[in-house]
Structure formats: structure tokens, C-alpha cells
Amino acid sequence: MNLNTAANVQEYLVEARGVSKSYGPARVLNNISLGVRKSEVTCIIGPSGSGKSTLLRSLAFLEEYDGGEVLIEGELLGYVDRDGVRVRAPLAEINRVRRHVGMVFQQFNLWPHMTAAGNVAEALVRVKKLPRREARERALHMLDKVGLLEKADAYPIRLSGGQQQRVAIARALAMEPHIMLFDEPTSALDPELVGEVLQVMKTLAREGMTMVVVTHEMGFAAQVADRVVFIDKGEIAASGPPREIFHDPNNSRLQQFLQNYL
Ligand code: ADP
Ligand code: MG
């Protein structure tokens, strides 16, 4: 009996197979393959300009790639065929699956004219079509989860960067994503505000959220990641459990990169 195929397709919640991308002559992603299982935390590390954001955006279908394919929950939504022709699922299909993918960026991108609760509730009303009252209730619940219930009616300008980022996380979580993608969520923060955001992310990880986190916080990666992926010049130059990645004397590119964090 062959138990292989169907089970394997479902194995990864998100999977990149040989994803490549160029901007003009510059190869930004070179044949990246990566799979994330349910409840796993994958941290992506690497130098600035190595392609980390491009990869994350490709996983969320925010970026067109020119080679390879991305699967979300086993669903193939787009691929590039042998003749280099890009084939995509219908937009409605892509949006349906993309709704299961939450994203948090370096810049919090809150709407300045809406309160914290308003920011979290907005997509619930517009996209999920929840009645306002229900949306606000869920927004308050999510703000409570990130420790900001008492700031529900504050406008972003009244919030610290760390609080704004926690609102952005609450906003993503309110959509009930199956996977969360974080692109340097603490890089824009003053050092003393980094911890409160990482704490929220640690709690999420502990609760079993599937996460892909681009980060320069090596302590977080060492502590929380099931797997660390080191990207250098658009390629996966190392990948493995943190205890291997952070103590691999044989990989000189990795050692050179990590030296900046000691
Ligand atoms: P990282 O997130 O690791 O810093 P990025 O994925 O943002 O790296 O960028 C990888 C490379 O792609 C960089 O050299 C960057 O300059 C280039 N790049 C990113 N976006 C664009 C774009 N829209 N047009 C041209 N080059 C780009
Ligand atoms: Mg980046």
C-alpha cells in the first residue's frame, strides 16, 4: 500500500519548492526550498539584502517569483512551467488561501485615524463581514491577548512603537490565520521595546501557532525556533535546529555572519 503521496502533500502548512526570483540581472532568490509543518517556528536569519523579505513575501503571494512553486496547506496556487510561463490559480482562490496567512512587518502600518480597536476590527468588518459590534468584541479579545486591552480606544500616535506592533499582531491574529509570517517585527523598535513584542511572539509559539520569523534577534531564534534557516545571497546556506546552526564551526559564511551578534 502506498501511503506516500497524499500524506506528503499535506505535511507542510507552507512550502516553497525551488523558488527563484530575479530583479533584472540580479538573482535575489536562487532555488529556495523550504517546508514548515504545523505548529513549527522557523526563523530566517541572514545579512541585509540576502533575500529574506523577498522570500517571505513570496510565501504570502505578495511577490511574483520566476521559478518554482509555493504551496499553502498543500494547495498549489501558482507555479512556473517548463517554458517559463507563470501559471496562477484564479485570484479568488489565491485570496481564499491567503486569508489563512497573517503577516506582520517591520513597519506597523496602523491606520492613524483609527483607534487600536478600530485597527483590529476593520478587516473583520470589511473582509470577514462581521457586524461592527461583533468585530469590536473580537478586537478587544485580541488586544487583551497582546496585553493592550486598556489601550483599545487609544489612537496609534498615543502608543509606543512596541504597543503599535502588538496592535499589528492583534490585527493579524483577529483574522484567525493558520500561519503567521513576521518580517523583522522588532527592527524598527527602540531596544527597550523589543522584549514586549518578542514576549507576545513567544506566547503565540507556545500556543502552537505556525510561524515563520525573519529576525536579527538571535536569542529569540535560539530559544523559540524549531528550525533556523540561514540565507546568504539568495540561497539557503544552512538550515537546522538552533543548537546546530548556532554552533556549526564548519560553515564559514554562517560563522562570519553570527560574529556580528556576539
Ligand atoms: P533582505 O530582506 O534580506 O534584506 P530583500 O529581500 O529585501 O533582502 O532584498 C534582496 C535583494 O533584492 C536586495 O539586493 C534588494 O536590493 C533587491 N530588491 C528588493 N526589492 C527590489 C525591487 N523591488 N526592485 C529591485 N531590487 C529589489
Ligand atoms: Mg528585509
UniProtKB/TrEMBL annotation:
GO terms for cellular component: plasma membrane. GO terms for molecular function: ABC-type amino acid transporter activity; ATP binding; ATP hydrolysis activity. It is a peripheral membrane protein. The keyword Nucleotide-binding applies. Keywords: Amino-acid transport, ATP-binding, Cell membrane, Membrane, Nucleotide-binding, Transport. Residues 14-258 form the ABC transporter domain. SUPFAM superfamilies: P-loop containing nucleoside triphosphate hydrolases (SSF52540). It comes from the Bacteria. It is found in: Cell membrane. Its main location: membrane. InterPro entries: AAA+_ATPase, ABC_ATPase_HisP-typ, ABC_transporter-like_ATP-bd, ABC_transporter-like_CS, MetN_ABC_transporter-like, P-loop_NTPase. Pfam families: ABC_tran. Belongs to the ABC transporter superfamily. PANTHER family: AMINO ACID IMPORT ATP-BINDING PROTEIN, GLUTAMATE_ASPARTATE IMPORT ATP-BINDING PROTEIN GLTL. This is Amino acid ABC transporter ATP-binding protein (PAAT family). It comes from Paralcaligenes ureilyticus. The lineage of its organism: Bacteria, Pseudomonadati, Pseudomonadota, Betaproteobacteria, Burkholderiales.
